[in-house]
Amino acid sequence: MVRARWILAASLCMLAVHGVAALPTGWRDLNHNGRLDRYEDVRAPIDARVEDLLGQMTLAEKAGTLLHATLPTPGSSIGFAGIVYDADATTKLLRDRHISSFITRLVVAPLDLAAQNNAVQKRAEAGRLGIPATISTDPRHHFQATLGASTTGGGFSLWPDTLGFAALGDADTVRRFGDIARQEYRAVGIHMALSPQADLATEPRWPRFSATFGSDPAAVSRLAGAYVEGFQHGRSGVRPDGVATVVKHWVGYGAEPEGFDGHNYYGRKAKLSDTSFAQHVRAFDDSLAVRSAGVMPTYVIVHGPKIKGQSIEPVAAGFNKQLLTGLLRGEKQYRGLIVSDWSITRDCPQACMAPDAANPQTPASIGTPWGMEAADKTTRFAKGIEAGIDQFGGADDPAPILDAVAKGLISEKRIDESVRRVLRLKFELGLFDNPYVDEAAAARIVGNQKAQQQADAVQRASQVLLRNDKATLPVAPGKRIWLYGVDATAARAAGFTVVEDPAQADVALVRTATPFETLHPHHFFGARQHEGRLDFRAEDKDVQAIARASAHVPTIVAVEMDRPAILTAIEPMTRALIVTFGASDAAVLDVVTGRAVAKGRLPFSLPRSMTDVEAQSSDLPDDGPPPAYPRGAGILLKAADRRD
Question: Structural domains in the chain?
Answer without folding.
Answer: 38-445 (3.20.20.300), 463-641 (3.40.50.1700)
